[in-house]
Amino acid sequence: MPWWDLDLTNQFNLPQADKGSAPAGFFDSSSGAVRIFYIASKTIRHGYFAGSTWGNQNISGPGVAAGTALCAFADSVGNHIVYDAAVSRSLPQVHQILGTSSGATWVDQDLNPNAAVAVASGLSSFVDGNGGAHVFYIRSTDQHVHQLSYSNGAWTDQDLTSLAGGPSAVTPSPLVSYSDGYGYHIFYVSDQHVHQLFLGSANSAKWVDQDLTATTNGPQVAPGSGLSGFVDSYGEHAFYVGSDQYLHHLIFTSGNWSDHGLTALTTTTTTAATASAVSSFGDSYGDHAVYVGADQHVHQLYFDNSVWSDQDLTSTATPVVESQVPQAANGSSLASLADAYGEQIF
Q1: How far apart are CA 229 and CA 202, in angstroms?
Q2: Which label site among 55, 169, 233, 274 has the fewest CB atoms less than 10 Å from its CB?
């Protein structure tokens, strides 16, 4: 399967991203559009592709806080963009901009006006099997992981760190979340260990904390490393850059978590860049983990349902407009997805 490089900013007149902007995206099955969100001139921009060409849209709302993460998802209500808003001189607060399926109308909502979020920490979200929306953030006062859940027309806040008796997150910490038939899973970093906050699917289940680094005897998390994960038919997955600068894979199968140093499993000698972002997804072709290498190239570690292999996408992708594929900017964020059009990395 060939990879192509497309400069969306120049070819389709999208505004240039602010330095350090985090992208977030998803495939909107209701409209058949790929949607990618990022920050330009301290506002949220929306790029979208519906099968013929890319368009862009400025989404109005409170100003974006410096260093904010972005998360985005779609459900039966519409399209959701979650970010940290600079609503005053105090610390930022979690805001959602809710859009119709067509993307024509966007409305701002302050999801929790009573709590400030930790500056530059992660945001994550998912829609559970019953259609309920969940947003996760880290509170500034104590670095606790919190959940905002939507039901009966209102958002409710829970301190998951307190409920699970887990440790506070590092400053700043990435966040990853997803749900499956076993329950809810939220991953974060504390004392350079990957922790999972887990709520089982049974009605009597309680939130519990699991130190996955200690459980698997894996390496500590490299300072500034990204964190990513998903669930598929093989199990539950989390990816991070270890203190050895290798990309590591935590996987839950057959009732146990285990750690795999993916870089060591492939023929590559390229370690991850300092504070590399990490992104991942699964599709019918296999499992995909994406990072920025020490060579500033975008690399994909790919499991083809048999073995893991390394692909230097910067070197092998065919540029559509430019003479060559550019290197990743220092501190670049990553987003990735699989959809009806193929596999995409931003």
Answers
A1: 23
A2: 233
